[in-house]
Every structure is written in structure tokens, then in C-alpha cells.
Amino acid sequence: MERVLELVFAVALLVHILLLGIAVWRVLRGENAVDRLLSVELVSVLALCAMLLVTLITGQTIYLDVALALAALGLIGTLALAKYLADQRMF
User: Fold this and answer.
1) I want to staple 26 with a disulfide (CB 3.0 to 4.6 A). Which of 39, 75, 79, 82 is the partner?
2) Cα 66 from chain centroid?
3) What value does the mean pLDDT take over residues 84-89?
4) Residue 41 contacts by C-beta under 8 Å, 6 or more apart in sequence?
5) pLDDT digits 0-9 by tens, 33-47
6) Any idea what DSSP says for residue 89?
7) What is the full DSSP assignment across 16-85?
């Protein structure tokens, strides 16, 4: 049963990496700023999920700490970009 779970984690990690590549392509080729902002948020979430899957596969908890820091930075970055797009000034 444990071997099946490791296989499922590996397949899920590959799917997340594929989706991460598609989302990065959308960030680079987005039609407008809002589309790119949503894509950046999606990249942040997919990277967080990939880090959590790496934590489950390897069993090393350092990846969990990195994932939590990435989630916090992604939230702050998204809020800052949304404010900039709304007001056309940062502060």
C-alpha cells in the first residue's frame, strides 16, 4: 500500500510541474495585467502544492517551511500588485 501511495505522489508531482509550466507560459504571454496577475497567483499556489508533495515524498520537513514562506510571499506580492493595478501607484 505504501508503494502505491508513493506512486500517486510522484504522478501528482509530475502533473503539478506540468501545470506550473503552463501557468508560467500564461504569465509571459498574458493578454493584460489582470490575466498575468491571476497567473502569478496560480504559479504561487502550484509551487506551494509541489513543495508539499516533495515534503510528502522525501519526508524532510524543511520543504514545508519553504512552502509556508512561499505562500506568505505570494499573498503579499499579489496584494501589492493588485493595489498597484487599481491605483497606478504603490503607496
Assistant:
1) 39
2) 12
3) 80
4) 74, 78
5) 888 888 888 998 999
6) S
7) HHHHHHHHHHHHHH-SSHHHHHHHHHHHHHHHHHHHHHHHHHH--THHHHHHHHHHHHHHHHHHHHHHHH
Name residue 21's amino acid. G
pTM score, whole prediction = 0.82
Answer whether 30's CB lies under 8 Å from 81's CB.
no
Cell readout for 35 is 490575466
Nearest to 24 by CA among 11, 36, 10: 36
Residues 6+ apart with CB under 8 A from 16: 46, 49, 50, 53
